[in-house]
From TrEMBL:
SUPFAM superfamilies: N-acetylmuramoyl-L-alanine amidase-like (SSF55846). Residues 50-196 form the N-acetylmuramoyl-L-alanine amidase domain. Coiled coil: none annotated. It is an enzyme of class 3 (hydrolase). Its EC number is 3.5.1.28. Pfam families: Amidase_2 (PF01510). Residues 1-22 form the signal peptide. GO terms for molecular function: N-acetylmuramoyl-L-alanine amidase activity. The keyword DNA repair does not apply. Keywords: Hydrolase, Signal. One of its GO terms (biological process) is peptidoglycan catabolic process. The lineage of its organism: Bacteria, Pseudomonadati, Pseudomonadota, Alphaproteobacteria, Hyphomicrobiales. This is N-acetylmuramoyl-L-alanine amidase.
Amino acid sequence: MMIARLLAAVLAAFFLIAPAAAGDAELAKLARSSGTPDIPGLKMVWLAPWGDVRSVRGWRNIIVHQTEGPAGSARGGAAEQSKNPTRRGVTVWVETDGTVYWAVAENLVPTHGDGANRNDNKYIDNSATYRRVVRDNSIGVEFAGNYPDVTTGPTDAQVAAWRVLVKLLRARYDIPLDHVYAHNWIDYKDSRYCEGCWLATLARMWGE
């Protein structure tokens, strides 16, 4: 009986893992594509299409930001970013309802980050990030909605979108898990809250 129960448990685990593995394989394949692909699990609004992944900028890090804007502000922020790609902002914007806006072509560098000026090791070991994790080698993702209370966390829809999006970005640019950073981990930011920290922590907790 014990062997039968063990076999049943192994089979159940296999059937739970197999769909996830198949989904990850499909996502990894889509992550290397061009154009404006449909990404399962994401509502993507493409303001700039993907190019040939073999020739896009070599992003080595992901920086998670949160904007002090109300619900709905990601759409406007992404639209402005698309018109002026190098303005202060990011490549990817995430609305409170989970909609993801890809605003900027992959070969352009928005102005985000403050030069990786944090070196106090408050959140992580900054010896690997100080003056190294900067806008030129990092793709930025902005989550809207922490207004008027900056301590407001991401919505459930944003967390669900992030779970897929972070895998997509890592697969497309071959970014290691430990190169996903919260803005507050690498730059001195608003002392009232830790910008991007929960989302970056979640990404690392989810693992591979």
